[in-house]
C-alpha cells in the first residue's frame, strides 16, 4: 500500500475504493486527516474532542482486515466526525453544554454503532451550539466555529462543526441532525451537502419524543454520492425508534441514475411565508434560469402554507420541554439562553395550541404531497441571508424585518421540516458576497433515493459550469490560527474515561 499526500482531497467513495483495492492503507488515510485537523482546525475550531490514538489503532485493525481478505463494510477504514450531540462510547460528548463538559458516555448512539459496524472509524467530535439550539455554532465549552471561507463569519448550525470540517477537508464524512434546518443550513453556508432524511429512515434511539417527526439524524458529505454512501450504512429498522422501518439497502446504494432532462422541477423563493433578503432571491432566480434548459419543466409552485411559523413554534417548544424540563427545573443555569427560551415558550402553551399546531402541520404535509403530483423535486434557497459574523448569535433582521425569535430566520428550512419531506442542501456556486450558496432540493416523502439521484444529476450539471460548481475555501488562508474563536469559552474542557490524555487524545 502506498502513501498519497493528497488523500484528504479525495472523496469518501474514492478513498473507500482505494482502501478496498489495497492501493492505500487505512492508517495512511487516518494519518492524513489527523494531520489536516492539526494544521487547519485552529483557524475554524470545527473539531471538539478527539481520540486520535484510538482511531489509529482502529485503522491498523482495518488494514489487517483488508490484507486478510475479510468482507469489508461500506465505510471500511474511513475517518468519521460525529456531531457532539450524539453519544460516542468512551469519547467525550459535551453537547456544547457546561453541565456536560466531563460527560463520557458508556455506549454509542444507534447511528454511531451502525456506522462503526459498516467500518467507519470515529476520529473526532464536531462542534455544536449549546444543546444544539440555534444555527450559529458557538458554546461555552469549545467556543465558536468559523466559516472556512471566512473564519470571521458563522458556519451555521447546529451541525456547523461537521460542515466546516468537511469543507476544509478535515474529514471525509460527518454526521448531523436536523430539527429546523441543522443539517441543511451549515451545509449551505460551508459549501457541502447535508441531507435531512424522511423521518424514521435513519433510526434515532435517543430523542425524548419517539413519535415526533420534526427531529431526524442524517448524513453530511462533500458530494451527493458521499452523503448517500453514509445514508446507506445508517438506514433501517431499530426497535428503539418507533418511527423506523425496514429498508432494502439496495434501494439506497448505489444511487439510481437520473436523467436530468426528465425532471419536473418546481421552484419557490420563499414558500409564500418566509422572509428572504433580496440578494438571495436574485441568486435563486439566476440558478433557476440556469436549470431551466436542462430539465423537462421548471415552474413556480404555490404551496399556501398558512401559519407555518406558529406551528413550528409549538412543536419545537414541545420537543424542548420533553428533553430539558427537568434540567430547567433543577439546574437552569446550565442551559443556554436559546434552550431556556424554548422551554419557557412551552410552559405558556395549551392543549389547544398543540392541537392547532398538529392540524397546521398535517395541512402543510398534504399540500406538499399534492405539489409532488406535479413535480419530481422542488427547489428553494436554503438560507435567507449570506453568512453573518459568528459574534452575532442569530440574524436579527432579514430584508429589513426584525425576526420574532432566534430561529425565525430559519423558516426556509423549518417549513420543510413541518412537511416531513426529505430535503438536502446542494452546493451551487457562490452568492453576491462570494460565500457558498446552497440550493435546497426537496423530494417526495420516503423518496430519499430518488431525491439523491436527482441531486446528483444537478450536481454533475453544476460541476460543468465553473461558477455553479461546489466552491472550495482557500486552505492556505486557514493556516493562520484564529484565537478569537475560543474567546467565549468560560470553562476549560474536561476529559475522562478511555478518552483521557493517557490514551493520547487531543482537544483542539
Brief characterization of the structure:
This protein has helices at 12-20, 26-44, 52-68, 110-117, 160-167, 184-190, 224-234, 278-291, 308-330, 337-347, 351-371, 411-419, 448-463, and strands spanning 47-50, 79-83, 121-126, 138-139, 143-144, 146-147, 150-154, 173-178, 193-196, 216-221, 264-267, 297-300, 377-381, 397-398, 401-402, 423-430, 436-442. It has one domain: Amidase signature (AS) enzymes, CATH 3.90.1300. With 508 residues, it is an alpha+beta fold.
Describe what you observe in this structure.
This protein has 508 residues and is α+β, with helices and mostly antiparallel strands. The chain has a single domain (7-498), classed as Amidase signature (AS) domain (Amidase signature (AS) enzymes, Alpha-Beta Complex). The protein is 34% helix and 15% strand. The chain is built from 13 helices and 17 strands. It has helices at 12-20, 26-44, 52-68, 110-117, 160-167, 184-190, 224-234, 278-291, 308-330, 337-347, 351-371, 411-419, 448-463, and strands spanning 47-50, 79-83, 121-126, 138-139, 143-144, 146-147, 150-154, 173-178, 193-196, 216-221, 264-267, 297-300, 377-381, 397-398, 401-402, 423-430, 436-442. The strands form four sheets. An eleven-stranded mixed β-sheet has the order 1-3-2-8-10-9-16-17-13-11-12, sandwiched between helices. Helix 9 (308-330) packs across helix 12 (411-419). The longest helix has 23 residues, at 308-330. The chain starts with 11 loop residues before the first helix and ends in a 45-residue tail after the last helix. The model is unreliable at 489-508 (pLDDT under 50).
Amino acid at each position: 500500500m502506498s502513501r498519497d499526500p493528497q488523500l484528504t482531497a479525495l472523496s469518501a467513495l474514492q478513498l473507500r475504493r482505494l482502501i478496498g483495492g489495497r492501493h492505500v492503507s487505512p492508517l495512511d488515510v487516518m494519518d492524513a486527516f489527523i494531520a489536516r485537523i492539526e494544521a487547519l482546525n485552529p483557524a475554524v475550531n470545527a473539531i471538539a474532542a478527539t481520540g486520535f490514538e484510538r482511531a489509529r489503532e482502529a485503522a491498523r485493525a482495518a488494514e489487517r482486515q483488508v490484507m486478510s481478505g475479510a468482507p469489508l463494510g461500506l465505510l471500511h477504514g474511513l475517518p468519521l466526525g460525529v456531531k457532539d450531540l450524539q453519544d460516542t462510547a468512551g469519547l467525550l460528548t459535551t453537547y456544547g453544554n457546561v453541565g456536560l463538559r466531563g460527560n463520557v458516555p458508556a455506549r454509542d448512539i444507534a447511528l454511531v454503532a451502525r456506522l462503526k459496524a459498516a467500518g467507519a472509524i470515529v476520529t473526532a467530535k464536531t462542534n455544536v451550539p449549546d444543546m444544539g439550539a440555534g444555527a450559529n455554532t458557538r458554546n461555552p465549552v469549545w467556543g465558536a466555529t468559523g466559516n472556512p471561507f471566512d473564519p470571521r463569519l458563522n458556519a451555521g448550525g447546529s451541525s456547523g462543526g461537521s460542515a466546516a470540517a468537511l469543507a476544509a477537508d478535515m474529514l471525509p464524512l460527518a454526521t448531523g441532525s436536523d430539527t429546523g434546518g441543522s443539517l441543511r443550513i451549515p451545509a449551505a453556508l460551508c459549501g457541502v451537502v447535508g441531507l435531512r432524511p424522511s423521518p424514521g429512515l435513519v433510526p434515532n434511539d435517543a430523542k425524548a419524543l419517539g413519535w415526533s417527526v420534526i427531529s431526524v439524524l442524517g448524513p453530511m458529505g462533500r458530494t451527493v454520492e458521499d452523503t448517500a454512501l453514509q445514508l446507506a450504512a445508517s438506514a433501517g429498522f431499530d426497535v428503539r425508534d418507533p418511527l423506523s422501518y425496514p429498508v432494502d439497502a439496495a434501494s439506497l446504494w448505489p444511487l439510481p441514475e437520473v436523467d436530468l432532462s426528465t425532471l419536473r422541477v418546481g421552484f419557490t423563493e420563499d414558500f409564500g411565508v418566509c422572509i428572504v433578503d433580496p440578494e438571495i432571491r436574485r441568486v435563486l432566480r439566476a440558478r433557476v434560469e440556469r436549470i431551466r434548459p436542462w430539465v423537462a419543466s421548471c415552474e413556480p409552485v404555490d404551496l399556501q402554507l398558512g401559519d407555518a411559523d406558529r406551528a413550528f413554534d409549538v412543536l419545537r417548544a414541545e420537543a424542548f420541554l420533553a428533553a430539558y424540563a427537568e434540567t430547567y427545573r433543577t439546574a437552569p443555569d446550565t442551559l443556554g439562553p436559546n434552550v431556556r427560551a424554548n422551554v419557557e415558550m412551552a410552559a405558556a402553551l395549551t392543549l389547544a395550541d398543540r392541537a392547532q399546531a398538529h392540524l397546521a402541520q398535517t395541512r402543510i404535509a398534504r399540500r406538499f404531497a399534492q405539489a409532488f403530483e406535479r413535480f419530481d423535486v422542488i427547489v428553494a434557497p436554503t438560507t435567507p441571508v449570506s453568512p453573518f459574523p459568528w459574534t452575532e448569535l442569530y440574524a436579527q433582521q432579514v430584508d429589513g424585518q426584525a425576526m420574532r425569535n432566534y430561529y425565525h430566520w430559519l423558516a426556509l428550512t423549518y417549513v420543510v421540516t413541518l412537511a416531513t419531506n426529505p430535503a438536502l442542501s446542494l452546493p451551487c456556486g457562490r452568492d453576491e458576497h462570494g460565500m457558498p450558496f446552497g440550493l435546497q432540493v426537496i423530494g417526495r416523502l420516503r423518496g430519499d433515493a430518488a431525491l439523491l439521484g436527482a441531486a446528483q444529476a444537478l450536481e454533475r450539471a453544476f460541476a460543468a459550469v465553473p461558477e455553479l460548481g461546489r466552491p472550495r475555501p482557500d486552505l492556505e488562508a486557514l493556516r493562520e490560527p484564529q484565537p478569537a474563536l475560543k474567546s467565549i469559552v468560560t470553562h476549560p474542557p474536561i476529559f475522562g474515561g478511555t478518552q483521557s490524555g493517557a490514551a493520547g487524545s487531543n482537544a483542539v
